[in-house]
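Quiz preparation item.
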């Protein structure tokens, strides 16, 4: 029998949730290690060195956001939150603490598995050489040349627009909170003003989306932030 190539640590105090998610993960050939408390989850993550962590926020011994923050002190493993907390502030706190994604219970297994596969692909890419280009739809972003092309035409972006786009492109599929984007683009010395973000995201969509009113790639996570979806990596050797 072939040994599983992907290891997942599943942290949730609800036994039925662990059973359902474990069954789905094992059906994909993944090895799953369970934990019902935050401390057990941190111990499993330290021992197993997983490729991905799926964690609840409501744990019996500690808040899941604090657990993620402790995990982030020594690990960059992708973390997907699976929580019954649906308030925007809970999502923002978890993502700002270091979570990569957030799914609210009740959830659909197909969506969970799709997000897991997306984060595993991104994690796998991190072990290879740095990619110089990314593509989404008809847009090609050349990170080395700092150039954006739509089809065959160069798109002129302002410096702030470019920094926003490149921040999203470096974390494809991942939710970046308003605060994270603001800090990365404007820097820690500037006070957060999310109105600026909405304005510049609107500019990017006008320049890059086929239908800015119904964006396919630069999508809003309501009250939380933005993510870039549908991204294809272009290694330097295959770039045209």
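Solution:
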């Amino acid at each position: 029998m072939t040994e599983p190539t992907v290891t997942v640590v599943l942290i949730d105090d609800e036994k039925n949730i662990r059973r359902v998610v474990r069954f789905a993960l094992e059906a994909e050939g993944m090895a799953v290690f369970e934990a019902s408390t935050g401390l057990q989850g941190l111990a499993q993550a330290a021992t197993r060195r997983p490729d991905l962590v799926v964690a609840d926020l409501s744990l019996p011994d500690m808040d899941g956001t604090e657990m993620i923050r402790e995990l982030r002190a020594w690990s960059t493993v992708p973390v997907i939150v699976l929580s019954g907390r649906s308030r925007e502030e809970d999502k923002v706190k978890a993502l700002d603490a270091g979570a990569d994604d957030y799914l609210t219970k009740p959830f659909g297994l197909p969506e969970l598995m799709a997000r897991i596969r997306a984060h595993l692909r991104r994690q796998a890419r991190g072990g290879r050489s740095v990619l110089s280009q990314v593509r989404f739809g008809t847009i090609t972003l050349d990170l080395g040349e700092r150039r954006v092309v739509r089809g065959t035409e160069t798109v002129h972006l302002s410096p702030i627009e470019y920094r926003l786009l490149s921040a999203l492109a470096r974390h494809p599929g991942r939710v970046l909170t308003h605060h994270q984007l603001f800090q990365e683009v404007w820097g820690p010395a500037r006070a957060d003003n999310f109105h600026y973000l909405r304005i510049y995201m609107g500019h990017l969509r006008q320049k890059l989306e086929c239908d800015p009113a119904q964006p396919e790639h630069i999508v809003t996570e309501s009250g939380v932030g933005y993510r870039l979806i549908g991204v294809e990596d272009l290694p330097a050797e295959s770039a045209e």
